[in-house]
Amino acid sequence: MTTEAPAPDPDLVKVSTFISLVLRHRPEAAGLTLDREGWTATDALVEGARRAGVALDRAVIDRILAQPGKRRFALSPDGSRIRALQGHSTDAVARDLPAVAPPEFLLHGTVARFLDAIRVEGLKPGQRQHVHLSSDEETARAVGARRGRPVVLRVAAARMARDGYVFHRAENGVWLTLAVPPAYLDGFDPG
Ligand code: HQG
To answer: Is the Cβ atom of 123 under 6 angstroms away from ligand 1?
Structure first.
């Protein structure tokens, strides 16, 4: 018996990546439409995935939702609908998340090659609707490490909020804001 969390199942990661694609970015890839809050019918997702050649059923969805790590998706209480909680780029979705007062500082994980641009422009959402921030360093490092050696930037979030910038927190703990001007950033030292 071990207390360590099990590693994510690689087959489930593949299906989960497909679900991320359709529930965040390209619902049309599975013939789906999403409402403003990101919801779509769970049965439609299952059917659409099958048409796209991805083996998906309710049991697989339940196993993905039970995977360790970040909770990317959620089912409605009766299970009939499913959505991604954050990370959308599709214009169909505009979640009505409440404004939340952020902690003094939030963190953003990135890589050194973006720093010159970030110093000048601040953090921009890129293809997504929001800049993604986290309250813990481990998460920020993991986000940056997707692209190389991670660099963690510190965002003066409470100061931003005092200056009128709005923050949201998705149900899985990811902090969201539209952009972070350079004046609120520090921690540019890689390493
Ligand atoms: C960078 C994953 C140049 C930014 C993660 C990032 C996260 C700039 C990249 C979620 C810039 C955008 C989001 C500027 C920002 N000039 N580069 N002015 N401003 N950047 O993937 O934050 O696994 O859209 O640093 O865990 O990396 O998919 O954002 O490197 O929560 O659930 O431009 O995606 O979640 O990349 O990641 P992304 P992100 P999932």
So the answer is: yes
55 burial via Cβ count (<10 Å: 0-12, 13-18, 19+): exposed
Bridge partners for 54 per DSSP: none
Among protein residues, the one with the nearest Cα to ligand 1's atom 17 is: 114
Between the CA of 110 and the centroid of ligand 1 the distance, in Å, is 7
What value does the mean pLDDT of the chain take?
Answer: 93
How many A from CA of 121 to the centre of ligand 1?
A: 14
pLDDT at 2: 47
**85-119 pLDDT per residue, tens:** 999 999 999 999 999 999 999 999 999 999 999 99
Instruction: Indicate if ligand 1 lies below 6 Å from the C-beta of 24.
Output: no
- Domains of the chain, CATH where assigned: 10-84 (1.10.10.970), 106-190 (3.20.170.30)
Residues with Cβ < 8 Å from 53, sequence gap 6 or more? none
Position 43 pLDDT exceeds 80: yes
Prediction pTM value: 0.89
